[in-house]
Design a protein that fits this description.
InterPro entries: Peptidase_S78_dom, Prohead_protease. The protein is of the alpha+beta class. About 20% of the residues lie in helices and about 40% in strands.
């Protein structure tokens, strides 16, 4: 299974206060994305339950890079609209300070979720309706990344080698997309 990403622009749905506090929707239910996917209400429920039972949280990353955590999501929950997140950039982390400055300048304008699809089905309009997702992380991003990284087989958790491979794949995609 590939790790997939969904993108949401910072704006009406996401607010940044005090330069470090972030709140808003990382995913909206019922809205078709450019890839023809629609997230159904309840798609994150089992994943969020499992994370809570295991005492783990959803990671806040910089550009989907597992080697660059930049903050903490203090609240991640589903409501009637979508996946709501609320958290803070950690001022003691250099990349988090950079992210805050880039957000303030308008250079960074999005959130993107990293997840694996556990259950989905095509609807009569040909859209893939995602009914169960395994949420891994919510990243601050410049633009959505290509979902080209392989992480783990279905039902397995990522190994350290998987995470290194994911980081290499995402860096290669970033270089390809930015020409650098």
């Amino acid at each position: 299974m590939e790790l997939e990403h969904k993108f949401c622009r910072i704006g009406a749905d996401v607010t940044v206060t005090d330069g470090t506090r972030i709140a808003g929707y990382a995913s909206l239910f019922g809205a078709a994305d450019q890839g023809g996917d629609v997230v159904a209400p309840g798609a994150y429920a089992l994943s969020l339950e499992r994370l809570a039972e295991e005492g783990r949280g959803v990671k806040m990353l910089w550009q989907h890079d597992p080697a660059q955590p930049i903050g903490v999501w203090d609240e991640v929950r589903e409501d009637g609209r979508g996946l709501y997140v609320k958290g803070r950039l950690l001022e003691g982390v250099g990349k988090a300070r950079e992210a805050a400055a880039l957000i303030a300048a308008g250079a960074i304008d999005g959130l993107s979720i990293g997840y694996r699809t556990r259950r989905a089905a095509k609807n009569d309009q040909g859209l893939r309706v995602l009914t169960e997702l395994e949420l891994w992380e919510v990243s601050l991003v410049t633009f959505p990344m290509l979902p080209s990284a392989r992480v783990a087989a279905k039902g397995e958790g990522p190994t350290e080698a998987d995470l290194r491979e994911l980081a290499r794949s995402l860096e290669a995609a970033r270089r390809e997309l930015t020409g650098g």
